[in-house]
């Protein structure tokens, strides 16, 4: 099975190059400043981190975003440890693309291990937009998923030498999945951001949430370019930052839950995503690096620290709930401000 071996190798290369290329902090969070509140009239004991993504109820807005799977024993181990950390900290977790495991039975264990470790936690399935209804149902069943993420990654595919070149029909396939599966469908980008035009189309077909997957953190153009003999360097700078993506989607859609992600590394980034309009925040590259470099117990401590820091930030702002934090006053400057003005978004 040459194809399966190549796919497994690619998954491991993604991890290696994601760690090597790192997080760039080009996400635009430095353009967002909270208005200080000297009279928050609140105690840390009042802070409640609970939130929702559509009909799903989450104990924390922070979750582990889609990463690994389908790369053999090594990715199975990573998934097992991520699932353990998610369980210990009571946070949700998305798995990486399950396409490999749908095509090759032997890859299933790197996903099914998640439910062995974390029986009752919130877990999101993951497939690309080439997925059919039947594949989506199988991916959900494989891990008894509470929701399914469908990822959009056109630029990544184009940079990947063996990647897809035909992106026709994605919206209509997603629409069919929405009407056929009985869990919420989340559509996500993978680090190139999302525009208001895209979000509006997705809202019209009835999806429950978008994950903006903004530019500025893990860079999949750069990762795939590492695997090319002749890099397509012009795609390395391609994409919309996390801040402009959240603001674009938040100001133009009414019903969608928004997930902020792309380069999120600490609790202040999380708070800024929420204040821009997100109800949950995904972290991928940062969680992976922490796990690989420091181990699972250190990752658990780090997630607890993130929760503690977010509690302190919400106290400083006088916003006891995630819904209150969404309305915290802030000022947007710099490139983010310029972008939003050019796009007619205030
Ligand atoms: C990813 N990401 C990803 N996304 C997805 O929808 N399906 C997938 O299979 C993968 N695989 C994957 C592997 C690795 C090693 C990394 C680091 C990431 C993308 C991820 O979910 C996220 O959208 C981006 O990484 C941007 O977020 P961060 O990393 O900047 O927090």
From TrEMBL:
Keywords: Cytoplasm, Flavoprotein, FMN, Isomerase, Isoprene biosynthesis, Magnesium, Metal-binding, NADP. Residues 171-328 form the FMN-dependent dehydrogenase domain. GO terms for molecular function: FMN binding; isopentenyl-diphosphate delta-isomerase activity; magnesium ion binding; NADPH binding; oxidoreductase activity. GO terms for biological process: isoprenoid biosynthetic process. Substrate binds at residues 10-11, 156. Homooctamer. Dimer of tetramers. Belongs to the IPP isomerase type 2 family. This is Isopentenyl-diphosphate delta-isomerase.
């Amino acid at each position: 099975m040459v194809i399966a071996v190549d796919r497994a190798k690619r998954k491991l290369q993604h991890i290696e190059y994601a760690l090597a290329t790192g997080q760039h902090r080009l996400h635009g969070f430095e353009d967002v400043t909270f208005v200080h509140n000297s009279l928050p009239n609140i105690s840390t004991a009042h802070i409640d981190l609970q939130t929702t993504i559509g009909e799903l109820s989450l104990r924390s807005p922070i979750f582990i975003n889609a990463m690994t799977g389908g790369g053999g024993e090594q990715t199975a181990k990573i998934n097992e440890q991520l699932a353990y950390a998610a369980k210990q900290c009571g946070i949700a977790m998305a798995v990486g693309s399950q396409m490999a495991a749908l095509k090759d039975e032997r890859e299933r264990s790197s996903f099914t291990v998640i439910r062995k470790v974390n029986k009752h936690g919130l877990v999101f399935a993951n497939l690309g937009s080439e997925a059919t209804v039947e594949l989506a149902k199988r991916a959900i069943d494989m891990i008894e998923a509470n929701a399914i993420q469908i990822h959009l990654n056109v630029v990544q595919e184009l940079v990947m030498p063996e990647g897809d070149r035909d992106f026709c029909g994605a919206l209509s396939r997603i629409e069919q999945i929405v009407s056929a599966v009985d869990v919420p469908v989340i559509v996500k980008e993978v680090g190139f951001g999302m525009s208001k035009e895209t979000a509006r189309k997705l809202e019209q077909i009835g999806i429950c949430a978008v994950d903006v997957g903004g530019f500025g953190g893990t860079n999949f153009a750069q990762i795939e370019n590492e695997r090319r003999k002749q890099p397509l360097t012009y795609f390395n700078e391609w994409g919309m930052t996390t801040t402009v993506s959240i603001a674009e989607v938040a100001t133009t859609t009414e019903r969608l839950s928004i997930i902020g992600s792309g380069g999120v590394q600490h609790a202040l980034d999380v708070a800024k995503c929420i204040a821009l309009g997100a109800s949950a925040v995904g972290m991928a590259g940062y969680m992976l690096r922490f796990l690989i470099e420091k181990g699972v117990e250190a990752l658990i401590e780090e997630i607890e620290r993130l929760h503690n820091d977010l509690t302190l930030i919400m106290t400083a702002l006088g916003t006891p709930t995630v819904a209150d934090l969404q309305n915290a006053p802030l000022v947007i400057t710099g490139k983010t401000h310029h972008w939003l003005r050019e796009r007619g978004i205030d």
